[in-house]
User: What shape does this take?
Amino acid sequence: MEKNNSRRKFIKHGAVGAAGLMLAGNSAFANKTVIASSSVPAILGGKPAWSAANWVKWPIWIPEQDEPLLLQAMRGGAWSRSKLVDQFEKEWAEMLGVKRSLMTCNGTNALVVGLNQLGIGAGDEVLVPPYTFIATIQAVTTNGAMPVFVDVDPNTYQMDPSKIEAKITPRTKAIVPVHILGMPADMDRIMAIAKKHNLLVLEDACQAHLAAWKDKTVGNCGLGGAFSFQASKNLNSGEGGAIISNNTDYFQKCNAFHHQGQSSNSAGLGTGSGTRGCNLRITEFQSAILLAQMTRLKEQAEKRWENAQYLTKMFNEIPGIKPAKLYPGTTRSAYHLYMFRINEKEFGTTREKFIKALAAEGLYASTGYGQMNKGEFIKSLAKEPHYLKIYGEKKMKQWLGQTLNTPVNDRLTNEAVWFTQTTLLGTRTEMEQIAEVLKKVQKNASKL
Assistant: This one.
């Protein structure tokens, strides 16, 4: 849990630190020239590859372009959900090629609403991967259901489709594939299994803005998809989320739930539509920010995609560095995070020393998620009175034992290294310099 909780600290640090090699100015990708690197790693006395002067803040905010709509919202007086929310929902749906989009107060609650309106509740089991942010799991438990962990694919870090069917029981009701780090899960195989066993699918696309599976944006494969606009995300407004769906009935139910159970055409605080609900609405201010950020999203997505492919090609030539692989059906990864594994024996030093060496060069990296399925949240759930009442002590003990059995995820969490998405907004030359830094560190690994 400690590593998992440090994820957002890393992203926040990286967003204002050396992972941000891109400078916002007249262009979304304007860059300063990095310092010429020496052949000796900075941690051993050489000259750092990057200067602190090159660090930038995320998100990019261009006042003359971005502030008019926000000021309009402030001065208009309609501060709660109104025309700008409607506008963003329409444009977001069009950008993703989906019928409807519904904004929520954050990505976590997009998942909560999405699962709730799939009919997920007490006594149900939901299949999830262990390599994800805790919000995926909390969305399941908030609805009173049981998260059941399916171990990951060692090459892609996604839920391994070959391990799904072994986890299905009579209680299993849904699968939540997570397009982790912005990389699409294997949706063909997952949807085939779901169809075979009559299971519902809600895609956690919170990190995967504009990622695509076989030319279809993620979130379009299952009954619905959830996105996050939290501060670190590729499209963000500090907090915020969205649900997308092509199913009108499902969408209307989600809409009603997020609006205190009222139907989409009801007004005020009347009796509503008779469904359960909560107030999960978003503001006009957040919508104004998102509409401004959206004007750069496609260009930024293309930049990350191109740079990630180039970085992967170079990293594949470095002993001990194993970049994440994409499934053949991937048309585009969003690369909210760029991840690779380090084989300490092959590379020549420990992951901890490697990351410290990169930091000395001005390139910030993280170890990423920890073994969340073995953390205190999961252990405490096994003792939670309401879960014991619903599932029984024997079932909870059995569940906890199965939850701990994720050997591939265990190995992954001990080998993973992350760069933030801002790293990939640099120039092609900067990608080459990143690779050169890793090569330099690897050649001097025994001295670290």
